[in-house]
Structures are given as C-alpha cells and as structure tokens.
Structure prediction request, 438 residues.
Amino acid sequence: MTYGADGAIASVAPTDERVPRTVTKRTTVDLDAWPYPKQPLVPLAETVHERASVEIFRGCTRGCRFCQAGMITRPVRERTLAGIGEMVDAAVRASGFDEVGLLSLSSADHSEIAEITKGLADRYEGTNTSLSLPSTRVDAFNIDLANEISRNGRRSGLTFAPEGGSERIRRVINKMVSEDDLIRTVSDAFAQGWRQVKLYFMCGLPTEEDEDVLQIADMAHNVIRAGREASGRNDVRCTISIGGFVPKPHTPFQWAAQAHPDVVDARLRKLREKVNGDRKLGRNVGMRYHDGEPSLVEGLLARGDRRVGRVIERVWRDGGRFDGWREHFSYQRWTDACGGGAGPARRLAGVVHHARARARRGAPVGPPRLRARTRLALGRLAGRAGGTRAGRLPLDAVLRLRRLPLDRHDIEVGPSGTTLLPLTVVNPLTRADAGAGG
Prediction:
C-alpha cells in the first residue's frame, strides 16, 4: 500500500505474485451443504446470548441504505426445512442450550418460516427447548408466528426496528415500514396476551432534523394507546432503544458525514423530555440510548483503513480496554493516539463528520452509467442536480446492483459449485476507486 502526500491511498499491489490484483467475492450457493457449526462451543461463563444459534438463510432483499450486512451478503439463499431441522437437533444435542435462535438479517422473510416454526414447535413441545426470532420486520410478522415461537417458552416481548421516527426519514433510509403497520401488529399482539414491545431506532441519520427524532415519542405513545385499547389493561410497556448512526463502507451512506456528538445528545435530551411530557403514557415507555461520542470511535473503526491498526495498538498501550464502549473508550484518548494535540484531533473528526466529507467522497461504487432519476425513492438525495453534487448523497448501491449483468459483472460458477462475483473494493478514506488494486 502506498499513500499520497494528502494521506489518501495512492496504489495497492499484491505482496506475492500468486495473489490476484482483483479480489473476487465467493458466494456459497447451497447453504445446506455447509451446516455449521456442527459442534457449537459452550462457554464456561455466562454470555449475552445464552442460546444455540442456527442461521436459516443468508442475504436480504430489503435494501436498507444503512445496512452493511444486507449489501455484502447478497444474494438471498435459504436453508431447507430438513436442513434447518437437522442443524437445530445437532445444536441442542451438542450444547445443552434450552433456547434456539433462528437467525438471519430478517428471519420472518424466509419463504417457509411458518412451516419452520410450527414444525420445530411441534418437535420440542413438552420439552424445555424454546425458539426465538431475534430479527423480525413489522410487515413480515404476524401473530400466528409469534404464538408458535412462544409455545414452548415464555412471552418475554416482541422486538421491531422501525429505525426512524418519521415517515420522511424512513423513506430516506429505505426502511419502508409505516406506523400504521406497526400499530396494527402490536395491537394484535397485545390482544393475544403480549405485554411488552421493544422498538429500535437510530439518531443522526442523513438529512435528519430534530422533528424526525421527536416523532419517536409520538410513535411510542401511540403504541401504548393501542396496547391499552386492545388488551383492556394498563400494564403494557414499550421500550425504545436508540443508537447513534454510523456510516458503513459498501453502503449508499458510506460517504455521509456523521452527526456531531453534541447534536445527537441534544436531540436525545429533547426526545426524553417529550416522552416524559405525557405523564399518563410516558410512565409506560422506557428509553435506552447511547451517547454520541462512542459512535465516533465506531465510525473510525468502520471507515478507517489498515493504518487504524496502529491507533488501536496505541490506545491499548495507553490503558484503553476493549470490553465496553462507555466505560473504557475515551474520544480524546483516540485522538491522542492519532498523534496528539488539536491537529490530529481535527483529522480524526474529519474522518467521521468533516463538513466537506460528501464533497470529497470521490468516485462512487458500482457501474458508472446508472444515474438517479427523480422518480426513484432516493429522490433529490442522490446523484447530481443542476450540475452540482454539493450536499448530495452517493448513488444507491441497490439500484446499481440491478445493472451488474449489463455492465459485464458476469457471474461464474467455480469448480466447487460456488458463485464467483467480481467485486470492486473501495476504501472510504480514499478519493478514488481502488480499481484493479482494490
């Protein structure tokens, strides 16, 4: 790796002649042929997720613009009913866990999720083994699915992730979930005996304003109202959990400037005031959130190149610990590790929320011929308008991927049956596409 005078990557070259200059993506087509882990590790200490984990499918079709995993794990590949059943049986026998998590980016999107949950619930009925769906979408969820999941276990609560408080911001991030869908779903759940709902949101999203965040309070209050009406009880609960938005590489938001911690913290304070402002409803709403400063470190780790390794080592040698964000990560410690003084601190800040970050983003990912149109969901956020790119977000990678076959990104089948898809890797700290050296 060589760097220019401004610190940007100048070139990338293999260190061994046997290594190809272009990295290709390998895609396992048949997940049933790879049922891992067959012998899951069982830790001696208690862990956060005390359960056996079984991946039921890989990839996602939703195209949320903040989601790195949804972009890099495509295409969608599902495990079969028989394959999932064998994996669950092997995991329970080998581990002794009494809960099995059916994992994916959006587990309720599996085309046979109803058959999967009913079959497993029938198999383990009368035992101590329960099922969980840690990741579900409002528009793919139904009460029958919830009842099957909870048949052999306790009803601890339902979890959904609207991500944005307002309809406008959800359109920006392509999280096409309406509040009406959410209210309808939670009303059915509360009517069936559920008492608690947890909602996940992000703060600091691109184009976000204070009002977008404050509408989270309105949504939580509406959930409580709907729950009380559907159940006839006043003990229903809604917990809102909020994290700071961190732009991730290989997503449409990879070049978006990250909100300053002061902005995030101020919006969260206003949100708490609005939640608690309604005393009758606010007492049934819990609020958990992470302050904005640790998110800057996450942004550095997410979008930094290999040089960040030296920073991590320096933080560790200076006494930084890596077993928690709030307790042990100091933003000033990280800026000091970049070289010390105000100058390096400003350079670190520039990685995540520099005022000209979007103007300096350089070449976007994907085939060059596709341009955003006004009729697309991105609207005026993407591409060029009036001959200028100022204030515009990069083109949506989801739309670009639709043009891969037309732009000679051919799909090959390797000797082991795997699919090979040529992929251009872009370093978010450079101003130009890494190209063949990526």
About this structure: The CA atoms of residues 107 and 113 lie 8 Å apart.
